[in-house]
Structures are given as structure tokens and as C-alpha cells.
Amino acid sequence: MADATTTSAPSPRSSSSLRSWLARRPLAKQQLLLLLGLAVIVGIFDVLNPGFLAADNISSILQDSTETILLAFAETLVIITGGIDISVGATLGLSGIIGSLVVVGLGQGGMMLGAFPSLVLGTLAALAVGVGVGLANGLMVTKARVTPFIATLAMLGVATGLTFVLTNGVDVSGLAPAVATWGNTVFLGILTFPILVTIILGVIVGLFLHGARFGRWTFAIGSNARAARGAGIPVQRHLIKIYVLAGLLSAVAGVLVVMRLGTGSPLEGANDELNAIASVVIGGASLFGGTGTIIGSLLGALIIGVIVNGLIVAGIQPYWQTVIIGMIIAVAVMMQERGRARD
Amino acid sequence: MAVERLVAQGIVKRYGAATVLHGVGFTLHAGAVHGLVGHNGAGKSTLLKILAGAVAPEAGTILLDGSPVSFVSPSAAVAAGVACVFQELSLLENLTVTQNLFLAREIATAGVLDKTAMRTAARQHLSAYGLGLSGDEKVAGLPVAQRQMIEIIGALARNARVILLDEPTTALERAQIDRLVETLRRIAREQNVAIVIVDHKLDEIFAVCDHVTSLMDGRVVLDAPIAGLSRDALAESIIGQQEAARLHKQPGAGGSVPTATPSIARAIPKAEPILAVRGIGASRGLRDVTFDLASGEVLGLYGLAGSGRSRLLRTLYGLEPVDQGRMQLRGRPYRPHSPRAAMRAGVAFVSEERKANGFIPDFDAVRNCTLPILGRHAWAGVIRKQEAAQEAESVLQRLRVRGNIHAPLVRLSGGNQQKTLLAKAVLQRPAVLLLDEPTKGIDVGTKAEIHAFIRNLAAASGVAVLVVSTEEEELLAICDAVMIMQRGHCSGQRCPVDALDDIALRRLALDPAPGPASAPQADHAREGAL
Asked: What ipTM was estimated for this complex?
């Protein structure tokens, strides 16, 4: 990742220097280990279930993981600042529902344009919900000095409640069939629209975080907020932006879920924050702030996605998923702590 | 004579190569208040920490009521009857007064708290020392003076035989100080405890103490009953005339720090002030601070601990609020509400607390340096890393930062960290540079490099530099003139360093009336300009 390669030292020319190159780049080493772990897990499932690595199953794993990946991106931003956002799943749910309601409420629109205008408005409404939720979180954390955990816990309650108030707990149906078609059509072998959006957002957020002033400030605040303020960084304003961005990414995930399913379900997003936080932690970020990468969080989310999919394909009782994910989190964090102790 | 409560003998303490206490001994009597005085860095705080069990001495014995003791921890000292009230008070803010008084020794039957008994006992203690509190108040809402009293009462309730107070009056106002002095005397007499008080203010020492011990560079230079001791003799022991005279006779000691371009740059500039401060004040800390700072000059700010030196710099950098007064920077009103605002106006600051709020530990030297100036090296928010790094590296090289500038800064030595922070400030191209203890905890060689750099910066780039330092040598080496700060006040009187030595500086800091050696220049003529 950009963070690991900015030093002006020459890049490795021979494999013999790979070890020392990695020693100087703990982040690259970490990501290589994650990649290795992912490969091992994929390998195990491929042995257990022949056909696991078929293009359609890879596409299905990626498609199902887009939600976790986007929420993990959102969570990465917040966790790097030393905060936490446990409302990302609820934001996903609320924005998806409001987007669906707007689309259904506006109906099919004019004959000429078809469903297109209402879909655009619905998407904008969903994104606006994400921005609003993020802004509220950011203001609570900065201006009202509520700790991030409590502020976003409150938001988790409010957003989840509103989702059920608006739907009475019933799915929002009546969306144009085109929605699900767009959301699930596979092109270029494994890509779908949600996967493409996730890739593009990953690249943008990654550049933002590792190549731009925005990211530099984010890491600085998470590493030492007092020194960051002393260096002239508008800490509060920046934190508000971070939470807004997290809300926005969650809302994008909400729109993509609706596209995937073809209906707005009030149950979507529930407990998703756990997988998002798990992805970020597996990806090497510290909950104390100051560290984390987009690539790491992506790999963390993929590991979770592969495990979930693999267990289903292998026909194992689904309740084992959380048990295994929980154990992986524990192992990942213990390995990090050992690495940190060696430092 | 009262019984000898605590006898310390031959206490030695070293930090690395530096010996802070060279075999200090003194005796505390029951029922008496004992003053411990000495200048910045004389070793008072270390001695207090040793008595309180927070620091272990390399050598020496402590006898408490005749039996030798060796405290492995502060709690061991408390259990033995030695309680310490440090500058940072240690009460738990979210508990009530009663809960604090009975912390870890709650009255309980079979694990169930007897709240009534504790409340009654607490109320007795509180009223006995004139605190009009019921005991049910949360500590968080109480003023410092009352918290301090509660700590002292808590120590007495734990059967303390020795109570150590570290500068108990710094945060108090006049009337509160009088009340504290009176109460301390009463407690010593009635409870028959020995009280040790570290204090910088001579009138308070004379008001409260029975006996005084004065430390100078880790040695006892005066140990006498207060009766019959003259104010001058005590002041002299702190300022260290004889001691300093003895040191100056040794070749190579003192004044050996090299400086750049001494004669020309030392003249006080006649230029218009770039920063004009008029009567600024802030609650609990600053009152009526007035001074001018001109381009190209290095102005020192000297004062005792708690005099508000650092607070003033932090206020000028927008880290603390201003309640009264006016400031002008380059002729325009200046009132920064954040470091960002101060930076944009052209003010840079290097903090005394390097680790706490100076740098980003995970960032390397280059990234730390460029953090405030990314705007110059970014297009639409995207950083041009090479370009930013080149500018930072050129300044880091000029400051001769050694060690890997691409490793996390927390891994570099203190001297290199400090140079990096200086580079970070310089990269902002400030008009005014505020330095708080610029060479704290740094070796002599690096110190000299930093001094030369600061002098050169002022002379060559015309930066106006305001330096706070507790080291007289440092101020004399790098400053054109020095101002004195006392109890949050600074009049703006400048003493040119040519007319000063370390003794004169200490004398000025201790005594508001300027001594004959100082020849301060009043600088109030410009006041009408605002």
C-alpha cells in the first residue's frame, strides 16, 4: 500500500533482499501474510468442495462480500482516527429502506423515461440519509464530546428503530425488476455492478487515505490528537468529515444491497457492523487509532466472505460462521500484539 | 525540642550520568512545618519523591520514628504514615468527598458499606478544618483550594505522621494561601505531624515554616530554624552567590556554550514590534501581561515554576483562551482561538511536552515536519510526496538531524526529536517563533547546535523568537534580552543579557524589585501606539 512504499529507499531487485525489504515495511509484510492466509483458506475450501474456485462461485463470493467490504472501508476511516462507528450496519439498513420507499413512492414515472428518474432520486435520498447520519455522529463526537462508541450506539438505535417504523417490519416490494437485473448481471466473467462500484470506491478511498492530505491528517489525529491540533490540523472539522464519509459509504452499501436483492428489507444491515469491525481488525488496524490500511481491511473482509461462503457450500450448519470468525479475530489480534511487543 | 519524626541521611540519586542528589540529609520534627527551598532543578522534587516512595534512591537511609524504612512504592509510604500531596491532585473526581476520604478503607460490615458512619466521620473532619462541606459533594465541582484541603484531611484520617506538600500554593489566591498557611500550622501543632512544604515564595516560607532546608544542585546549602534567619540569607542560599562564585572560578565551567554572531545580533532592535501584547489575562494563570517582540530578536522569558511562562506561550499559540487584554500581530488585531489560526497568522510553537503534544509518534521525521505545510505541497488534496520530502529533508539536514529520518520519530533520540520539531516550526516560515524549553533533556553538543540555529534564524531570517527556559545559561547564550514572569504577571521590562548573569536572573525571578545588577529598561513608551 502507499503507506508502505513512500520511503525513498530503492525497491527490491532480487528475491534475496525480499526479507530485508519486508522487515523495513511492516505493512507490506502484514498484507502479504493476510494474502497468504486468504489463499490457505480458499485452498482448504477448494479441497473440501471441488468447484469452489469456479468463476461463478468467485463472483458470488465477491457479490456477497461487497456489503462487508464497503462497511469495512467506512469503519477503517473511523478506526484510524481512534474512534469506532457501530452504526454502519443500521445506516446501511435505513438508507436502503428510504431509497426503496422513495423509488416505490414515485412510481414508474413518465412513459418515456421509465423507472430511471425515480431510481436516481431514490439513490440520492439513500445517500443523503448516509450523510445525515454521519453528520449527526460527527457532531455528537466533536461538538458534544460524546465518546464515539456511545454516540454511534445511540445512532444504531435510532436508525434501526426508524427502519422498522417506516416499514412496519415488512419488506418494501414493488421495485422495478430492472433493479435486481442491474444488481446481479455478471459481465467479464466475474464482475457485477455492486462489485465494480466497490472496486472503484476502494481505489478512491485508498488514494484518499494513503496519498492525500486528508489521509495524512486522519492518521495524525489517530496517532496523537493533541499534537495534530498543535500542527494546525482542524481536528474537529476533520473528524466530522470522517464520520460523514463513513455514513456515505454505508449508504452506498445500502443501495447496493437493495440492487442485489431487488427489494428493500428492514432486516438488512443488522449486526453487519460486527463483520466490518472484524475485517478492519483482521486487516491490521489498531483500535487505539493511528494505523490501518484499505488493502488490509479489504483482505480482512474477503477472508470473512470466503469463510461464510465456504461453510455454506460445504453444508455446515450456518451458526458455525460466527464461531469461526470470532476465533480468527482473536488469533489475528494476538498475532498483532506479539508483533507490537517485538517492536 | 520535639521528637525527631523523620531523619534522612546521605540520600543519593542519579539519573543516568547526572547526579541529582549528592548525599542529602535532613531532619523533620513532629509538630513542625519544614520548608524545602531551592532553585529550578536543585533537587527538591526528587527528594520529595524519594520520601514519598515514588523514586528509589541509590544510597542513603531514612529513619521514621527511629526505625529504618525503605519504601518500595507510594502506597508503602502511605501505609507507613508518609503521605504526599503532589501538584497534580490525586482525588477521584467522580466520587464524593466522603467516598474519597474513605477510599480503600471504607467502613463496612460483612462487605456492606456503613454510609452513615462514614458520612458522620467525614463531616467531623471537614468541619474541624473549617470546610463548609457536607461530604456529599462530588469532588469534580470543588475548587482547587478545597480539594487540596480534602487531600490533607484524607492524609490525616489515614494517620499520616509525615505530610509532604509540593508547591501547594501555586494554584491558590491570596486569601486562600493565608488560610492554608494557618491551617497547616494548626495541623502540625494539634496532630503532632511533621509537614514538609516545597515552596518558591519566601514570604510564605517565613509565614508557615519552623525550619528551612535549602538545596542547591543536589546539596544542602542551608539548614536552619526560621527564627533568626534573615530573608536575605535565605534568598542568597537559593540564588547561590557563593556557590556560583566557586563554580565560576573553575576553568571551563559555565558560559562555554558557543553562540553565533554575538555582538551585532545582541543589540536590541529599534524596529517596530511585530507582536504587541497589552495587558492580557486569563483566569487562573495570567494577569496583565504586556510586552513587545520585534523581528530578528530573541527574547527570553524567565520565571519560577508556576509563574505562567508556558501558559503564556500556549495562550499566544491559541491553545488557551484569553479573557482580557489586546494583542496585535504585524499591526493587525490578533486573538487566535486555535493553533490553526495562530499558524495562519504566522506564529509557530515548539512545545515543552515533546511526547504528549509535540509530534505524531507513528510518523517519521519527514512526515512530522511536513504535516503543517501540506497545503504547499498538494494539488487538490493529493500530496506531492517527493517535493514535500525534499523541502523537509533540506531543513532536517541543516539542523543535522542524525538517525533514520524515515523511521517512526518516537524511535529517534530526544535531541533528534527536538531538532525535528524545530524543523517543523521553521518550515512554516513563521514571523514569530515560540519556544518552550527548546533543549529540555538534551545532551550538551546537541544543545549547542540548537542554540546556534536559533540565533542564526533570528539574525538571518528576521524571525522574532520568544524563548521560555528554566536554564539561565541557555537564556544568556541565545537571547538579546530577558523578561521576568512572576505569578502570571509580566510587565514587559527587558533586561539586556549583557547586563545579566545567572545570579542576577535568579534574583530577579525571586524578587519583584529589580536589583542593581539588572538595569532593566522600561519599555512602556510604545504603549500609546495601540
From this structure: 0.80
